[in-house]
Amino acid sequence: MPNPFLAKDVGFIRLCGHRGHNLTAPENTVAAFRAAHELGATSLEIDTVLSADQQIVVLHDLLLDRTTNGSGAAREMTAADIAALDAGSWFDPNFAGTRVPTLAETIALAHELDLVLEVEIKEKVDLEAYYEALALVLANPADRERVMMISFDHASLKAVKARIPGLRTGGIVHEQFPDPVAVARMSDLDELCIDLDVFDPADATALHQAGISIRCHAYKPRTWEMARRAGLGWDDTLPAWLRSGLIDTLSGDDVGWLRDFLAKAVS
């Protein structure tokens, strides 16, 4: 069966909206997910934590304070209580009444829009309960096929993969390693999620030879302008890496900008 996270299997490089298109809609909401899709995204990177009734909700922080009109820990409220909060007014009054979605709702949206999901585990308090909840959400193989579970905590990824047959996992890395293939194999990873700042083409070649997919996080235009001023040369290196097939998914905050960058790079 083709791997939907490998460009060579699907025939194109995926564009991934980081927390959706979070520049024009509140992050990690259906509005941001639909905005990303409208701009050309074929993938979404989302964040998840556990509610009091052991439902997985799409939220970056353990606390509700930053992105809703609620306060306190998500784990102290039920999913229904969290859904009743306003998750949009903090971003813009036009998004008043926007809800925090569940992972199950977001997977249903992924089927509707033909997207794949990079689902980051942000839960820190009760990982065992999170794994149990995730197994229920991903009981359908068709849902598992669209999901890559990701985390900075590679040990947790190894644990959850052992718990859920057929699950794909991707380790987030903000550093360069002497042997990235060994890092991936140590935790039985299917992908490495590599920041552009530490991306190395030789590493990418070795990872692909080992059958491991690569998501490269390419930030936002303001970060690029700072990189140009610093002489980092991303305007030359990233297009070359994209043309060489070294990247399976290109992610960032401004999906429209990434779409145009990718189109120009591979034209």
Descriptive account of the structure:
This protein is α/β, with parallel strands linked by helices. The chain has a single domain (7-61, 103-266), classed as TIM Barrel (Alpha-Beta Barrel). Helix content is 38%, strand content 18%. It has helices at 7-10, 30-38, 79-83, 103-113, 127-137, 141-144, 154-163, 180-186, 201-209, 221-230, 234-243, 255-266; strands spanning 14-18, 43-50, 56-58, 116-121, 147-151, 168-173, 191-195, 213-217, 249-252. An eight-stranded parallel β-barrel has the order 1-2-4-5-6-7-8-9, surrounded by six helices.
Number of self-contained structural domains: 1
CATH class designation? Alpha Beta
CATH architecture type: Alpha-Beta Barrel
Low-confidence stretches: none
Number of strands: 9
* SS field, number of helical segments: 12
Given helix and strand content, the structural type is alpha/beta
User: Tell me about the biggest sheet?
Assistant: 8 strands, parallel, barrel
Radius of gyration: 18 Å
* CATH fold naming: TIM Barrel
Mean pLDDT over all positions: 97
Across the major sheet, the strand order is: 1-2-4-5-6-7-8-9
Give the full name of the CATH homologous superfamily.
Answer: Phosphatidylinositol (PI) phosphodiesterase
Gross morphology is: globular
Q: CA-to-CA gap between the ends?
A: 29 Å
Q: Helicity level, as a percent range?
A: 25-40%
SSE blueprint:
Blueprint: H1 7-10, E1 14-18, H2 30-38, E2 43-50, E3 56-58, H3 79-83, H4 103-113, E4 116-121, H5 127-137, H6 141-144, E5 147-151, H7 154-163, E6 168-173, H8 180-186, E7 191-195, H9 201-209, E8 213-217, H10 221-230, H11 234-243, E9 249-252, H12 255-266
Parallel strand pairs: 1-2, 1-9, 2-4, 4-5, 5-6, 6-7, 7-8, 8-9
Antiparallel strand pairs: 2-3
Helix pairs in contact: 11-12
